[in-house]
Specification:
The chain is of the alpha/beta class. The chain contains eleven helices and 14 strands. The chain has helices at residues 35-48, 69-72, 76-82, 99-109, 140-146, 156-166, 180-191, 215-229, 244-253, 277-290, 298-305; strands at residues 14-17, 52-55, 57-58, 65-66, 86-89, 113-117, 121-122, 151-152, 172-177, 199-205, 233-239, 257-260, 267-269, 272-273. The strands form four sheets. It has an eight-stranded parallel beta barrel, surrounded by six helices. Bound molecules: (5S)-5-amino-3-OXO-hexanoic acid (KMH) and zinc ion.
Length: 315
Amino acid sequence: MTTAVKRPQPKVIITCAVTGAIHTPTLSDALPYTPQDIAQQAVEAAQAGAAILHLHARNPEDGSPTGDPDVFAQFLPAIGERTDAVINLTTGGSPEMTVEQRLAAALRFRPEMCSLNMGSMNFSMHLMGSKVKDWKFPWEKPYIEASEAFIFRNTFRDIARVLELMSDFGTRYEHECYDIGHLYNLAYFVDRGLIKPPFFIQGVFGILGGIGADYDNVVFMKRTADRLFGGDYVWSVLAAGKHQMPITTQAAMMGGNVRVGLEDSLFIGRGRLASSNAQQVGKIRLILEELGMEIATPDEARQILALKGQAEVAF
Ligand code: KMH
Ligand code: ZN
């Protein structure tokens, strides 16, 4: 008789992406855009089980995306005081921002994590909002429509620039990979010694312009990452819109981590808008716990991802 060696299943890190730059206020009343609402929903998402909070800023008056560090300054301290969750700042920003604008907040606040988008691509949300007649703010409709012609720019030089500018701060990355080729772009930087393990790969499924949200694709991306990086990476998955819960559940069942939040989907179920970020975090947490998985605390996430710690940020 052979005795199987039992390895403990690693705890699952839940990231919550609180507001993003894809959705607009008319699409859901729950989408936070004032600093107070972003802070409140972020704190509640952490209380519900999110170890990492992925954050963008929006103009407080009309909810349009902004990279202005002064706006980030209106909610980051409030979140840092009320939760020990890991703060992860976007460097993807929004379609209208330059790479410099996208980086400004991360450079100023030196968070434990920031996003790093691993390739250029079409990135469109022009199919959203086709049924909306009355928009809350004038910027929303043209913004969504213009995305049909948008190229999300993340060249090798852009990525190298982020790595160079952030290199002194000990910030680690959420490597957002929207297609299999983006894993090879990541391998290029790993081979040059510019990205060190353990690196956090966020597989992004279901963006129009990226890989589709199909179960086979999730397996394919994981297998490709295993082949390229072996045990050097920590895997997480997000999926857009209605795919959010099924695809993240699949990823967790394959040993991965998950990202939810209103940045990625406005829904909690078929045709039902989520009431908050915390509601989505609570739902995925319940699913995973019912399946026998344990949820990582922020400090456990810090250990898994070798983060510098909450005391080392500049806000
Ligand atoms: N909205 C996600 C699909 C970033 O902030 O760097 C992509 C994202 C980009 O999270
Ligand atoms: Zn984002």
